[in-house]
From TrEMBL:
Transmembrane spans: 40-60, 81-108, 114-136, 148-165, 185-210, 231-251, 271-293, 330-349, 355-375, 395-416
GO cellular component: membrane
GO MF entry, a single one: metal ion transmembrane transporter activity
Pfam family, one: Nramp
Topological type in the membrane: Multi-pass membrane protein
Presence of keyword ATP-binding: no
Keywords: Membrane, Transmembrane, Transmembrane helix
Entry protein name: Divalent metal cation transporter
Superkingdom of origin organism: Bacteria
Main location as per UniProt: membrane
Localization, UniProt: Membrane
Length: 417
C-alpha cells in the first residue's frame, strides 16, 4: 500500500480537528476579517495557526507515544492542573454547544426559509439528530461521515472561491473609508479572530481523546510520524479553509460599505445573500451547503468532544466511581450535554451573548497556562527523549506561550477598563 493510501486510511483526529475548528471562527470571523479589512487579514490568520500549532500537536504526540490522554498527562503534573482543566471544561460545557447550535439552527432557518419553528425548536431537533448519530455510530461512524461532510464542504468552498476570484472584487463605493486595524475596535476584532483561530487551546485535550479512539480502531498502532502526518493534513486544511472564507469576504463585501451584523446568524445570511447577488442566484445552493455543512460538522464534533472530555476528566478526578466506567456512560454524557445546552438556549437565550463572553474570557485567560501544561506533559518522564519535541518546535511553543500571554493580558485589560 502506498504512503498516501496509508495516510488517507488513517485520517481521523486531524480530520475531526478540521471539522470542529471550521465553525464560527471560519464562517463568521474569517469572512468578516476579509469583508472589513481586506486581504491583509491573512497575516493574523496564518500567524495564529502557526503559533498555536504546537499546543494541538502535543495532544497527538503524547497520546500516540503513551496511549494515554492528555488529561492523564495533566494529572501526572499534579491534581491542581487537572482541576484547572476541569474548570475550563465546565465553562465550555454550559456555553460552547449552546452557542454553536443556536448559530446552526438560525442559519438553517435563514438559508432554507423556515419561519414556522423557532430557533429553540430547531436546536432541539438538531440536538436529537446529532445525539442519535453519536450514540449509534460512535467514533468510527463520526470519522467516516465527516470524511464525506468535509469533502463536500471542501469542494463547495473551492468552487465558491474560484467563482469569486473569476468574478473579481465588487466595485467600491466613492465614500468608502478603509477601517483602522490598530484602533480599539480593530484590536478587539483582532483579539477575537486570533483567539479563536483555529480554535481554543483547550481543544488540544479533545484531539488527544480522538487520537485514543482512533488507536482502538487500528489493527496495528501507527508510528508517531504517521500520526503527526495525519494531524498535519487536518491542520493545514483548517488554515486553508480559513483563507478561503477570508477571500469570499474580501471579494464580495470589502469596499462596499455594507453594514455587517454582529449576529453570527444574520451575518452568515448576509454573506450568502451578497454572494448570490455578486455571482448569480444559481450559486445560492453552493454557498448555502458550504455554510450549513460548516456549522453542522462543527456541532457534531464539538458535541462528541465535550462529552468525551467530560467523562475523562471525571474519571481521573473520581477514579473509584464505578458509574463512570459503565459501557453506556458515553451515551449518557451525549444526552446530558444535549439537555443542558438546550435548557441554556431556552432559558438564557436572551443572555447568550453574556454566556459566550464569559466562555471567551475564561478560554483566553487560561490559554497560556494550558499551552504550558501541554509542553510540560509532552516533556514528562513517560515520553521517551527521542519522541519529545525538537528544539525548533520548543522555540515555537515558547513563542506561542508568549503570544498567548500578551493576548490574555491585553484582553483582561480591555475587559476590566
Amino acid at each position: 500500500m502506498s504512503k498516501l493510501k496509508i495516510l488517507l486510511k488513517n485520517l481521523g483526529p486531524g480530520l475531526l480537528f478540521a471539522s470542529m475548528a471550521i465553525g464560527t471562527s471560519h464562517l463568521v470571523l474569517s469572512t468578516k476579517a476579509g469583508a472589513q479589512y481586506g486581504w491583509v487579514m491573512v497575516i493574523p490568520i496564518l500567524l495564529a495557526n502557526i503559533l498555536k500549532y504546537p499546543f494541538f500537536e502535543f495532544g497527538i504526540r503524547y497520546t500516540s507515544v503513551t496511549e494515554k490522554s492528555l488529561v492523564q498527562g495533566y494529572l501526572n503534573l499534579g491534581r491542581k492542573y487537572l482541576w484547572i482543566y476541569a474548570f475550563v471544561t465546565i465553562v465550555s460545557t454550559f456555553t460552547i454547544l449552546a452557542a454553536l447550535y443556536v448559530v446552526t439552527a438560525g442559519l438553517f432557518m435563514n438559508l432554507f426559509n423556515i419561519s414556522a419553528m423557532g430557533v429553540s425548536a430547531i436546536a432541539l431537533c438538531l440536538f436529537a439528530f446529532i445525539s442519535a448519530i453519536l450514540i449509534i455510530g460512535r467514533y468510527q461512524f463520526l470519522e467516516n461521515s465527516l470524511k464525506a461532510v468535509i469533502s463536500i464542504l471542501f469542494i463547495a468552498l473551492i468552487i465558491t472561491t474560484v467563482l469569486v476570484l473569476q468574478k473579481g472584487p465588487v466595485p467600491n463605493i466613492e465614500a468608502f473609508q478603509r477601517p483602522e486595524i490598530f484602533n480599539e475596535v480593530g484590536i478587539l476584532f483582532l483579539i477575537g479572530l486570533m483567539g479563536w483561530m483555529p480554535t481554543a487551546v483547550e481543544a488540544s485535550g479533545w484531539v488527544s481523546l480522538w487520537s485514543m479512539e482512533n488507536l482502538k480502531t487500528m489493527k496495528e498502532k501507527p508510528s508517531l510520524k504517521l500520526a503527526l502526518q495525519e494531524f498535519n493534513v487536518g491542520y493545514i486544511l483548517t488554515a486553508l479553509l480559513a483563507v478561503f472564507f477570508l477571500i469570499i469576504g474580501w471579494m464580495t463585501l470589502y469596499v462596499t460599505g455594507t453594514e455587517l451584523s454582529g449576529s453570527a446568524v444574520i451575518f452568515a445570511d448576509q454573506v450568502v445573500s451578497l454572494f448570490t447577488v455578486h455571482i448569480g442566484s444559481w450559486a445560492y445552493i453552493l454557498i448555502a451547503i458550504a455554510a450549513f455543512a460548516t456549522m453542522f460538522s462543527t456541532c457534531m464534533t464539538a458535541h462528541d468532544a465535550v462529552s468525551r472530555v467530560s467523562i475523562d476528566v471525571l474519571e481521573k478526578l473520581f477514579p473509584h466511581k464505578k458509574a463512570l466506567k459503565n459501557k453506556n456512560t458515553f451515551a449518557m454524557a451525549v444526552l446530558i450535554m444535549a439537555l443542558i445546552n438546550w435548557v441554556v438556549i431556552s432559558v438564557f437565550g436572551a443572555n447568550m451573548a453574556n454566556l459566550v463572553a464569559l466562555a471567551t474570557f475564561v478560554s483566553f485567560v487560561m490559554a497560556p497556562l494550558i499551552g504550558w501544561m501541554n509542553l510540560k506533559t509532552v516533556m514528562g518522564k513517560d515520553v521517551p527523549k527521542e519522541h519529545r519535541p525538537k528544539m525548533g518546535l520548543k522555540i515555537l511553543t515558547y513563542l506561542g506561550i508568549f503570544f498567548l500571554s500578551l493576548f490574555a493580558l491585553y484582553y483582561c485589560w480591555m475587559v476590566l477598563n
